Amino acid sequence: MQSDKVAFAIEVDNPTASAVKVTVKVSGSWAGVAHTCEPGPAMTHTTVEPGATFTTDPAHCETARQDAPLAYQAEAYIAAGDGQEWIGHAFSPRANVYADRDTLWRCGGDVPC
User: Fold this and answer.
1) pLDDT confidence of 1, banded at 50, 70, 90?
2) At 72, is the secondary structure helix, strand, or coil?
3) Using omega within 30 degrees of 0 as the cis cutoff, is the peptide bond preceding 41 cis?
């Protein structure tokens, strides 16, 4: 979250003892509508080493921050290897962003994070 834009990224943890090849896809949602990543690319193929974490580049998925109160949320997909057969799907906590006060983070069930 920055004063002029909102960026979306996802982290992939590999707690195993072996390297894992994955494809991850990130998108954003605001004003109740899903949006593709701009400027992109939305999909990344990578190898996550044992015990390591990979984070997508937030500069690949961002939007202008609005002056009106608005809720933003990232959506993530993951596939094994370089395919697009999604085996995992998750949403980030929701960021309720206001111009005149701090961002409020809401988790599943609409409870504070």
Assistant:
1) low
2) strand
3) yes
